[in-house]
Design goal:
This protein has 19 helices and 16 strands. It has about 500 residues and is an alpha/beta fold. The two termini are about 25 Å apart.
């Protein structure tokens, strides 16, 4: 599933709003022949039929024209006139005068045409000779500005409105009426920027095609809109059917990774790894007469370190750089240039960072764990970190877990670290939960690989963007950005 769909799929109440031209229908020279992509219309119809899922089309076209072109989409909300037309109505004298004046200009430029709307008019000059197209647009603006309260330049079209409404105000009105948890808006034109500008941090804005935009996501062309909507519909439909409730009826236990899942200490660990490796790599480069290449937190941490026991992480990263060191002993001092020494140096840095900066638990994770315990589902922490006990205490959530299998426990029992499933299996054994009736919750690729290979009943990934895709590719059954979303995704027990 695409990154921009993740928050939308899990939203308890979702609003999907789209522009029409360039979004649901391809841009054509004659707007009257801009018939919609039937795959997109079918996907919107499916979405509108799902529980707690609302569909809207907000366009500069007249509302009646939109409904005629799109056909019947039961439950869909159709807003015309760039947000100014919410119901069919007669054209006002002011709009009639505006259309008449623009018609005079269109007569001067072969290929130009005027589209009358209930709240304004559009001057289309896509088919005007390119050498005079800009002159046509300027002439239209000069002739009609006094009759319009709002002028918006689009793709070879100038929209004139006799109201102050825009797509942003229309979208806000829909949000007030529906109260969605997540709003997705898809559009391709300058006028859609008004809608993108009112989206909140949890909403999804998707720009179609090229051009400057404030939307956080972009897709290349109109056909991509259809496949995107179909994908969203399929996942939204499957969400309520296939995601099992996290209750004793289905599961005995939920096993949580710690860093990046329950607490924000993932950034602390990443910072410690970077500081430790950069010190080592700088000295190693000087000793070998090579250029210093710093540790890359974005690519190398995820690929070689995340989720693994400390010494395995050191070993994996050094191998990626073709650096060989002696293994050393667990008792090696943090100053030793051995695998164990570097791992101990990293652990020392983590302890210092935790002590100086404090640790906070993710509110959504705490909400989920508390809900599980109220239901009678057992919980455990399974972490590669030797600092798990300290972190849980600092975050104030140690009391929420029935057992803990961390790096120290794994060392005592001789258990291999992730991606081997042994630490998860040990936690499930302690809770008397067969793997098939236990859930693994992980943010690391090695962790979801462990959950999959261990035969657990459900593997939940925590992540966003490209990392979320990687978690799905490596064995996660579902990926969420916030663990509280899991409760909204449940089907009835």
């Amino acid at each position: 599933m695409r990154p921009m769909l993740r928050s939308a799929v899990a939203a308890p109440v979702l609003l999907v709003a789209c522009d029409y031209d360039g979004t649901l229908a391809a841009i054509v020279d004659d707007p009257a022949s801009a018939h919609p992509d039937q795959h997109a219309i079918s996907a919107l119809r499916d979405l509108a039929g799902l529980p707690d899922t609302f569909v809207a089309v907000i366009s500069g076209r007249a509302r009646a024209d939109l409904e005629s072109l799109m056909g019947d989409i039961p439950g869909a909300l159709v807003v015309g006139g760039h947000g100014g037309e919410w119901a069919d109505g007669a054209i006002s004298p002011q709009v009639a005068a505006l259309a008449s004046r623009l018609g005079e200009v269109a007569a001067e430029f072969p290929g130009a045409r005027v589209e009358s709307k209930p709240t304004g008019a559009a001057f289309h000059y896509r088919q005007v000779d390119p050498s005079v197209a800009d002159d046509a647009a300027r002439s239209a603006v000069a002739a009609a500005t006094k009759l319009a309260t709002r002028v918006v330049h689009g793709k070879r079209v100038v929209d004139f409105s006799t109201t102050d409404a825009d797509k942003g105000s229309a979208l806000q009105q829909l949000q007030r009426e529906i109260s969605p948890d997540v709003t997705m808006y898809i559009g391709d034109d300058v006028t859609d920027e008004d809608a993108f500008s009112v989206l909140g941090p949890s909403d999804v804005g998707i720009k179609v095609g090229e051009g400057a935009t404030t939307a956080q996501w972009r897709i290349p062309s109109q056909p991509e809109v259809s496949s995107l909507l179909e994908e969203l519909s399929a996942w939204r439909s499957a969400m309520g059917k296939d995601f099992p409730a996290l209750t004793p009826t289905n599961f005995d236990a939920v096993l949580f990774d710690l860093d990046g899942v329950l607490t924000e200490t993932a950034s602390i660990h990443a910072a410690a790894w970077r500081e430790m490796f950069d010190r080592f790599l700088r000295q190693h480069a000087e000793d070998e007469g090579e250029a210093f290449v710093p540790f890359d937190i974005d690519s190398e941490y995820r690929a070689y370190i995340d989720g693994k026991p400390r010494y395995d992480g050191v070993r994996s990263f050094l191998a990626s750089r073709s650096i060989e060191l002696a293994e050393g002993e667990a008792s090696d001092p943090a100053t030793a240039n051995t695998v164990a020494g570097l791992g101990n140096r990293k652990n020392q840095l983590v302890a210092e960072l935790i002590e100086s900066g404090g640790v906070e638990a993710f509110p959504g994770a705490v909400h989920l764990v508390e809900a599980l315990r109220e239901r009678g589902v057992k919980t455990a922490v399974v972490s590669s970190s030797a600092n798990a006990e300290t972190v849980l205490g600092a975050a104030g959530i140690a009391h929420l877990f029935d057992t803990r299998v961390d790096g120290a426990v794994a060392a005592q029992l001789g258990l291999p670290g992730k991606p081997a499933p042994d630490t998860f299996l040990e936690a499930a054994r302690r809770l008397d939960a067969p793997p098939g009736r236990a859930v693994v919750v992980e943010d690391a690729i090695s962790g979801v690989q462990a959950g999959r290979s261990g035969g657990f009943g459900l593997v939940v990934g925590v992540g966003a963007g490209e990392h979320a895709d990687a978690l799905l590719d490596n064995g996660a059954d579902v990926v969420v950005a916030d663990l509280a979303d899991l409760l909204a995704m449940e089907k009835s027990p």
